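In this section we walk through a basic example: taking a raw amino acid sequence and producing a predicted 3D structure, encoded as discrete structure tokens. The instruction is simple. Fold the sequence below.
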Amino acid sequence: MDHGDHGMPADLPPFTLARGLEFTGEPAFLVGCLAMLALYGWGVLRLHRRGDRWPVRRTVAFVAGVLTIALVTCTALNEYGMVLFSVHMVQHMVISMLSPILLLLGAPVTLTLRALPSAGRGRRGPRELLVALLHSRYLRVITHPAFTIPLFIASLYALYFTPLFDFLMESKAGHVGMMAHFLAVGLIFFWPIMGVDPGPHRPGYVMRMLELFASMPFHAFFGIAIMMASEPMVGTYSDPPASLGVDALADQNAAGGIAWAFSEIPSVIVLIALIYQWYRSEQRQARRQDRAADRNGDRELAEYNAYLASLNSRAR
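The resulting token sequence is shown next.
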């Protein structure tokens, strides 16, 4: 296969969904996806052998999250994403906004804490180190909305509106690192909002919803800015290979439309998850209050009976 500048494929045929979904097994992403599945499977199996239950829905969510990563990185979408802005934007949106939500719904931190053995009193093993990290000042900083929201927004504007994107696309390592960055930013942004796994920053449900929607206008404006641009904004995609039969500006406009429209999908998923978690939390709190009322009621009845018995004894 011939290659153009930046090591990008130069003779790809015109894009179709069938061609884009052909499995290519890009090594770095494939190994990463298999490693995540193997580690998660180890945790579930360890709990099963110990007689503990792990919700199937969490396993399904995590596996779905890994599969979404593989879908856009281990198929020909990864090659087309090197030459078509629109395909790259699909990769970006999936890896930064859909995959993290599904992975977090799988509660991997909770599974790790339950699967790892305790090192024993006075000793520090992997579980103890993870607990220390979860309570560290560093994690409190990077999961605070004052950090996560600007980071999420900057990952869009600072990447595409500066020469940084073209620099990263010049090498395979830069491309892989950029995709890993998208995933990491998505995980950091959605982790405190989802609230499935333990973490240092856990606001109330209303505040989580506000955090979720705080970044959406910036995300929508980003998509509109790209979609309405009158000339190519990213050098990497300014001259697509002739074999694709694609106009650079039209492809860029499509990329902006994808970024603008895609922001609604994760918002709905997270909002549904938050409402469900809120409902479950209220149900648990109601049950605790009922149990407390039952216990207090029994004690009050016993005290009242004792009081009546004392009056009866005095009357005699």
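Looking at the output, two observations stand out. The longest helix spans residues 264-315. The radius of gyration is 26 Å. In the next section we compare this with other chains.
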